[in-house]
Structures are given as structure tokens and as C-alpha cells.
Amino acid sequence: MIVLYARVSTAEQTTEHQLMQATQAGFEIDKVVADDGVSGVSTRLAERPEGRRLYDMLRARDTLVVRWVDRLGRNYADVCDTIREFMRRGVVIKTVINRMTFDGNTTDPMHQAVRDALIAFMAASAQAQAEATKAAQRVGIDHKRRTAPNAYLGRKPSYDRATLDRVLSALSSASAPSLSTIARAESLTKQTVHRIKADPQAAEAALVAWGL
Fold first, then answer.
1. Half-sphere exposure of 21 (CA within 13 A, CB side)
2. Is the pTM of this model over 0.70?
3. Which residues fall within 8 angstroms of residue 162, CB to CB, at 6 or more apart?
4. What gap in Å lies between CA 65 and CA 104, rounded to an integer?
């Protein structure tokens, strides 16, 4: 079975767009599993609602297709751990971009070393790109503040980054508490938790806008 996992992070990277890219790259996809509205920056694959399904669904000799390795984790360590865990299970991982293949069946030590080094390099590149994007956003926001100090940045978030991470983790857990329970635990309003659940990207953007 060939499964495409899509995590939607921008308007340009819809599930349909990622499936089209995979098809155009020559992949014959049997099933699409997608997480929409889940932060890849703060949520591990295993903690995402549809990401969890992959661990139950994929078997040895199955193929997991992703647009790029950043779909599989929130940072360098997470991406590396996820790829290696699937390889230990006998799952082959392939990327649409650059058509990379990660297969745990190789037994040659040199091939293993090259493969593991490539995984580490790609995971590090994905994290560096994400951090560069955040940095560019902050530069743009700082410039806007200097040139237009009265520009409206939106309401200042009532949460910090650590709180947002905890809320997103709770929302994506297998037995997610009610919104009211999460709100009480984090000293937030139920409406705030609802807004975070409805649009995690906007919640993240608000933190960036305010430099939090």
C-alpha cells in the first residue's frame, strides 16, 4: 500500500495540491491521510489526529509518501526519530521533492551510514528553513513597527508559546479534554481555546506578530 501523508500548513499546500504534486511525480497513491489545521511546529506526528493513524495503518513493505521531510516532525530530532521508527517497522519513506527514498532494509554499513547522514542533513535543513521563515516574518514585523508604529497588530494573545504548545498537544491527544477543561487548566477563556483549535496557524501568527 502506498499512503500519502499531507499536513496542510498554507493556502498553497492544500491536501489536493500535495496529492497532485505526488501524482505528477509518478506516485500511484492508494490512500491519502491528511492533518488540516494542526501546527507542525509544535505538534509531533504521533500527537496529530491523522498522524497517529499512520502508526496503526502502515505495515512492513508499505510506502509512506510525503511532500518533504518537514511533514513528519516539528524539528530536527523529531523528524529523524519519526523516519527511523518507520524504517524499523519496514516502511519505506519517499519524498515528492527530490524523490528521496529511505529504506531500512539495507544491511551494508556504508549504505546505512550514507542513508543516516542524509536523513540528518535533510531534517536539519527542514528545521533551518522553518527557523529562517520565522526570522523573516519577525524582521518584516519589526520593520512595520518602525515605519508604521501605529499599525494594528491584532489583539495581543493571552497565551505564550509554551501555553500554545500545551493547548495544541491537549487538543490533538487521543482522549482530548473538553475545551472548558483545557481553558481552566491554562487559565484561558473557552473562546480562546476554541479559536486556537479552529485556526492554529493564526494562533501561531499572533505570537510572531507580538514577538512572543
1. 19
2. no
3. none
4. 15
* Look-up of cell digits 505495515: 59
Q: Which of 160, 143, 144 is nearest to 152 (CA)?
A: 144
Q: What is the 3-state secondary structure (H, E, C) of the chain?
A: CEEEEEEECCCCCCHHHHHHHHHHCCCCCCEEEEEECCCCCCCCHHHCHHHHHHHHHCCCCCEEEECCHHHHCCCHHHHHHHHHHHHHCCCEEEECHHHCEECCCCCCHHHHHHHHHHHHHHHHHHHHHHHHHHHHHHHHHHHHHHHCCCCCCCCCCCCCHHHHHHHHHHHCCCCCCCHHHHHHHHCCCHHHHHHHHHCHHHHHHHHHHCCC
Where in the chain are the domains? 2-125, 152-209
Q: Looking at beta carbons, which pairs linking 182-188 to residues 24 or more positions away fall under 8 Å?
A: 186/159, 188/158, 188/159, 188/163
State how far the Cα of 200 lies from the Cα of 36, in Å rounded to an integer.
10
* Residue 113 pLDDT grade (very low, low, confident, very high; cuts 50, 70, 90): confident
The CATH code of domain 2-125 reads 3.40.50.1390
For 30-85, the pLDDT digits (tens) are 999 988 755 545 577 877 878 888 899 999 999 999 988 888 877 788 888 899 99
